[in-house]
Design a protein that fits this description.
It comes from Promicromonospora umidemergens. This protein has a single domain (3-262, 286-325), classed as TIM Barrel (Alpha-Beta Barrel). It contains eleven helices and eight strands. The chain has helices spanning 3-17, 42-54, 78-89, 122-136, 155-167, 181-193, 227-236, 265-281, 285-295, 307-317, 323-331; strands spanning 30-32, 59-61, 98-103, 143-146, 174-177, 201-205, 239-243, 298-302.
Length: 336
């Protein structure tokens, strides 16, 4: 094994250890920086980031396209730029956190998204990660993601370009977000066959409630974490990250109704069990959801915009659900 390969292996093992149940609670949470620098102002963003680090949190997730839909220009980059300013204002903090960013979903023409976006060709990946590093004010990231699938490019080309980020020392690990299981596995088999770094992490929307079959939960056809991806991750030892685990606050905030795609008899049954478990352990619905995800080896991503939301999530990670309650929550029929 070469020195470069040894370094890459060490980096990968270090980040993989972050997913274990032996780590401090806050280390099992991902802070999503999606709206930092647009909807969430700089002072509030800095306060949330500071509290996250003070609580022992490490993973921060962003993307080069965040948040184009909330910006005046119609293009992204604001989240990465804010994080870059935060790093500059907090000397030494970059070495205390693990940084992830995504590429492939930034609009090329803001008036024609998602048809017009940067995509996942080799050239686009190289250009996008270069821009991300510049905005972030760093020379490497701990995890680089392909943000959404690009059917115009062979997935093998995407796999090779992302593997090069690791061999070049730009990223410690690589992952895919919002991709169907078959493309994740095709990309992985190609990389392994070529002796290159394979994708080892997947990121999808996921929560305790499950959507009606055949419905979309967002902008991505394969955005929801399905059983096939969960099975692939278990067999291939992939890490799993879940965004929107709290359904944007709908579990506990009466002003935010449960989204319509989750309105079916299976959800009624699940909510009844969730309420009962929450009462037994003295926690909120959302806290039980986070604890349930963590108990199943899934890393929850919090896109909170307020310090108290972060505090509640960290408290949830300190909640140890007994195995019988985890099983009870999981055993409810998903769909009525």
């Amino acid at each position: 094994m070469t020195t470069s390969q040894t370094t890459q292996t060490t980096q990968r093992e270090t980040t993989q250890r972050e997913t274990t149940q032996d780590t401090p609670p806050a280390e099992r949470l991902v802070l999503g920086a999606m709206m930092f620098g647009t909807v969430v102002d700089e002072a509030t963003s800095f306060a949330v980031l500071d509290r996250f680090v003070d609580a022992g949190g490490r993973w921060i997730d962003t993307a080069d396209c965040y948040a184009f839909w909330a910006s005046e220009s119609g293009y992204g980059g604001q989240s990465e730029e804010l994080l870059g300013r935060w790093f500059a204002a907090r000397p030494g903090v970059r070495d205390r956190i693990l940084l992830a960013t995504k590429f492939g979903a930034e609009p090329r023409d803001a008036a024609d998204w998602p048809a017009s976006r940067t995509g996942l060709s080799a050239g686009a990946i190289k250009t996008q990660i270069t821009g991300s590093l510049r905005r972030l004010g760093t020379d490497r990231v701990d995890l680089a993601w392909g943000h959404m699938e690009d059917r115009s490019v062979p997935v093998e080309e995407t796999a090779d370009a992302c593997a090069a980020l690791v061999s070049d020392g730009v990223a410690a690990r690589i992952g895919l977000s919002n991709h169907p299981a078959w493309r994740v596995e095709r990309a992985r088999r190609h990389a392994v066959g070529q002796g290159k770094e394979p994708f080892s992490v997947v990121q999808h929307a996921y929560s305790y409630l499950q959507p009606r079959p055949g419905t979309l939960t967002g902008n991505h056809r394969f955005g929801w974490l399905d059983d096939e991806l969960i099975d692939l991750a278990a067999v291939e030892n992939l890490d799993v990250w879940a965004y929107t685990p709290l359904l944007s606050g709908a579990y506990d905030n009466p002003a935010k109704p449960i989204p319509e795609v989750f309105d079916h008899p299976g959800s009624t049954q699940r909510l009844a069990v969730l309420d009962d478990v929450a009462a037994q352990v003295g926690a909120s619905r959302g806290q039980v959801v986070i604890a349930w995800l963590t108990a199943r080896g899934i890393r929850p991503m919090l896109g909170g915009s307020k310090v108290h939301q972060l505090d509640a999530a960290v408290a949830a990670l300190e909640l140890e659900l007994p195995a019988e309650l985890v099983e009870r929550l999981s055993a409810v029929e998903l769909h009525g």
